[in-house]
Amino acid sequence: MFKITQLDFKYKEDKPTVGVDFMLKTIQVVHQDKEYNIKLQIWDTAGQERFQAITTAYLREATGILLFCNVNDQSSFEKCNVYLKKIKDCCSENVKVMLIGNSFSSGRVVQTDELVQFAEQNNIMYTEINEQNITEKRDAIVQRLTQSILQQSLEEAQQEKQVE
Length: 164
Description:
By secondary structure, this protein is of the alpha/beta class.
C-alpha cells in the first residue's frame, strides 16, 4: 500500500498487514475533457485467514479493488481465486478489480500469460509492477482504476436521470 500511495518509493519494509491499514490519496482524473478531484480511501486488508471476518466488512463498500499477486510465489497466484470469490460474494457486481502482478525479487514462478488469462476469464484489469517500474506505473494504476470507477458512476447517474 505504501508503494501505491506514497511519493517516496524507497519504503522497503514490507511487513504484512495485521487487520486493516488505511490511507487517503487525492488525485485528479480527466474524463471526457472534464477534470475531477477524487479523494481515494485506500484500505489494505490482511490476507491471513484469521482476519477474514474483519476484511469482509471493508469489502462490502468497495468500488475498486487492487488485488496483488506475488509472481515469485505460486501460492499467491492460487489464492487469487479465493480472494476473487470473496470479492464477488461481498461486493457489488459493479466493483472494479485490478490484478497486479508484483515482483520485487528474482525467481519468477507465475508467468505473465497465466495472469493475463486469469484476468480475462474473470473480467478484471491486469498490470505488472516491479522495483524498476513502480514509480512510473503507480500513477497509471491508480488513474486507470479510478477512471473506470468514475466512468461507471457517471453512467449510473445518467441512467438514473433518464428514469426520472
